[in-house]
Amino acid sequence: MEDADVIVVGAGLAGLAATVQLQAAGLRVVLVEAADGVGGRVRTDEMDGFLLDRGFQVLLPAYPEVRRLLDLDRLRLQPFTRGVIAGGNELSLDDLTGPARFAVRRPGDALAVAAMSLRDVLLPGRRLRTAPPKSTERELRRWRISEQTVDEIFRPFLGGVFLDPELTTSSRLFHLIWRCFLRGGAAVPANGMRALPQALADLVADDALRLNTHVESVSPGTVETSSGTLTARAVVVATDGTTAAGLVPQLTEPTWNAVTTWYFAAPESPLRRPILLLDGDLNTVVMSEVAPTYAPPGQALISASIPTTQQADVRPRLERLYGTSTAGWDLIAEYQIPHALPRMTSDHLFTSPAKTAPGLYVAGDHRDTSSIQGALVSGRRVAAAVTTDLRRRKS
Ligand SMILES: Cc1cc2nc3c(=O)[nH]c(=O)nc-3n(C[C@H](O)[C@H](O)[C@H](O)COP(=O)(O)OP(=O)(O)OC[C@H]3O[C@@H](n4cnc5c(N)ncnc54)[C@H](O)[C@@H]3O)c2cc1C
Q1: Alpha-carbon distances, residue 204 vs 29, 198, 209, 282, 382 (angstroms)
Q2: How far, in Å, is the centroid of ligand 1 from the Cα of 13?
């Protein structure tokens, strides 16, 4: 007899979502993870009372799949201000008065941003997903948003979201994410972004998870791991796209967008607001203003990120942005993440097949969209495909 009905490889959000839904369908699952904890790219380190997410990241509470799977109240979400400060000016997304206030400087752009935003909030998601493919840069210009506003606000903001300052990312993905920002803003759980995978892991049966177990190869029905061979009726590869392409030859390795995040501890907060500040390719926020739990009492935690892994001296830029010296700030951590987000240009297929061969399935953000939402949806899709096939084989 096999070790399980299904073996899921990788306990990131996709693998966890798949496992939870396969178990709910009554299947015996073994979830194999190479690392010492769950979460994949969504993990949080604790250091001297600071919570450090592995790279600056946020949850959009309006993500439909997050709402479907998780009890948001239990995550104790701490919201960011709904807007950004760029070039010293604030673009508020609270309501349409935000663009209206922005209009004092550029009335045409304010109208264009408001029209685009209204459309994105109201149009069914399916229509946004099937719009003609183009890059985000072209799309913003199609809405007649000036080059100056694109460079001052959208390029730095989206450069931080997609880690792609060139704005080559699919405009479909842009509209879907923009809509979620408008509908629900951004937040982090009080206990760090790790709370998200942990909430899913809490739903996984105790004996299903095998940490510190590296998968070396897979074939339909068999998984070779660092601690021996496992057999099952179906195998789901829910690793990052590069590892998946190594394990399943039919897959193409994605190209990646990178990021570096620096965390500074400061004796006091340089800005008493939970708002993102943008300056070219740099984004920064006082995390302890967003979530006081991110720093020990009497200290502030500042994050700063740039979409590259090349060395950069961000201090002079932070001093300009916050209008204060950083001499008393301690650099407490630096996260360089070359494989942060699979690049999704305009020709990206939003829904790649979950099944690659009889008995062999794939999930992960690279199969849907490079986001928390995409990873969770891919987990649900793969669980549905496996469940249907196994039931069919039984009958
Ligand atoms: C710095 C950063 C910021 C981000 N910001 C946001 C954001 O603000 N909003 C948003 O929506 N998304 C954001 N994302 C993207 C989002 O985190 C990912 O899209 C999502 O977490 C991917 O989940 P996944 O399960 O597909 O893959 P992963 O998280 O990569 O999980 C794959 C798992 O497989 C395991 N694994 C790999 N190889 C093996 C092997 N051989 N054997 C066993 N296990 C293996 C890995 O250890 C890992 O746990 C960000 C990502 C990063 C890195």
Answers
A1: 9, 10, 8, 38, 16
A2: 7
Tens digits of residue pLDDT in 339-381: 999 999 988 878 889 999 999 999 999 999 999 999 999 999 9
CATH of the domain at 372: 3.50.50.60
Q: What is the mean pLDDT of the chain?
A: 93
Domain presence at residue 84: no
**Phi and psi of 85, rounded to 5°?**
-110, 120
- CA dist 305 and 199 (Å) reads 27
Percent over 90 (pLDDT), the chain: 79
The DSSP bridge partners found for residue 135 are 170
The alpha carbon of residue 233 and the mean position of all alpha carbons in its chain are separated, in whole angstroms, by 31
Ligand 1 geometric centre to CA of 366 (Å)? 10
Instruction: Confirm if 230 and 73 have CB atoms less than 8 A apart.
Output: no
Taking only Cα atoms into account, the Rg of the chain, rounded to an integer number of angstroms, comes to 22
Cα–Cα distance between 142 and 137 in angstroms, integer?
9
Residue 268 Cα to ligand 1 midpoint, Å, equals 33
Kindly state whether residues 173 and 307 are assigned to the same domain: no
Nearest CA residue ID for atom 20, ligand 1 = 372
Structural domain harbouring 334: 44-78+188-192+256-342
- Domain end marker among 152, 180, 208: 180
Predicted TM-score of the model (pTM): 0.96
Q: Are residues 209 and 150 in the same domain?
A: no
For a mutational test of ligand 1's pocket, the pick from 8, 16, 31, 42, i.e. the residue with the most ligand atoms closer than 8 A to its C-beta, is 42
| Chain segment 41-55, per-residue pLDDT in tens | 999 999 999 999 999
Q: What ligand 1 atom has the least distance to the C-alpha of 216?
A: 41
| pLDDT tens, position by position, 71-125 | 999 999 999 999 888 877 787 777 656 665 665 677 788 889 889 999 999 988 8
Residue 85 inside a domain? The answer is no
How many angstroms is it from 158 CA to the middle of ligand 1?
Answer: 19
| Tokens describing residue 344 | 């999704």
Q: Does residue 244 share a domain with residue 233?
A: yes
- The reply to whether 237 and 264 lie within a common domain is no
Average pLDDT over every residue of 20-47:
98
Look at residues 151, 180, 209 and tell me which one is the last residue of a structural domain: 180
**152 and 164 inside one domain:** yes
Residues with CB under 6 A from ligand 1: 9-15, 32-35, 40-42, 55, 57-58, 214-215, 238-240, 243, 259, 337, 340-341, 364-365, 370-373, 375
Ligand 1 atom index nearest CA of 32? 43
